[in-house]
Amino acid sequence: MNSTLVSLSGVTKSYTRGKETVQVLEALDLEIARGDFLALMGPSGSGKTTLLNLIGGLDQPSAGSIAVDGQRIDQLSSSKLAAWRAHHVGFVFQFYNLLPVLNAQRNVELPLLLTKLSASQRKKNAEVALDIVGLKDRAKHKPNELSGGQAQRVAIARALVADPTLLVCDEPTGDLDRKTADEILTLLQELNRTHGKTIIMVTHDPKAAEYATHTLHLDKGRLVTEAA
Fold first, then answer.
1. Are 66 and 42 in contact (CB under 8 A)?
2. Which of 30, 98, 171, 182 could form a Cys-Cys staple with 8, CB 3.0–4.6 A?
C-alpha cells in the first residue's frame, strides 16, 4: 500500500477580483502520508483554508495536480467530485454546521443520504459513529440541547459516519474554551492513533498543533517551514 495519501504538485490557486488577480497559493508541492495527523498553521490570508478546501475537493486548483489515494481529484467534474467527497472525505468546521431541527443521530446520518444505504443501516452507522465520540446517550438531543463540545463531537461523528479516507478540520476548536478544546483534540488524536484516520487540521492555536504528528507552516501561499 502506498504510504503517501495526498500528493500536490505545482498547485496554484488564484482568484480574480475585478481587474485584479489575487494569488492565494503558488506552485505548492506537498505530500501527506497515510495515517498522518497534520496541523496546518500560518497567518490569516496565508492560504491555509484554501489549501484545505483543495485537498477536500471543495475547490479546484488554477494549476497543478492533486491526488488523494491515487485519484486525481483535480480532473474530476463537479458531480464526480461531489460523489468522491461523499465517500472519501469527512469535514469538521469551527461552527459545527449542525441542522437545528434535527437531533444528533439525524445530523450524523446526513452524509449517508448520498449513499445507497437503507434507513436502518444509516441509523446503525450513525449510532456507531456517536459511540466512537462518546455521545451515544445524546442521540435524540437537538443541537440547542448540547454544549459546544458535545455539538463538535456530533460534527466529528458526522464526519466519520461514511468511514472516510481523510478527515479535514478547519479550526475545529476555534469556538471552544481550552478544556473543551483539549477534549476535542484528544478525540482527534485517538481517531488518528486508534482508528488510523489521516487528519489535516487548520489551526491558529499552537497548543492545538501540539496534538498533531507534525506541523506545516504556510505564509503568502508558500510552504515556509515544517517542524517535527
1. no
2. 30
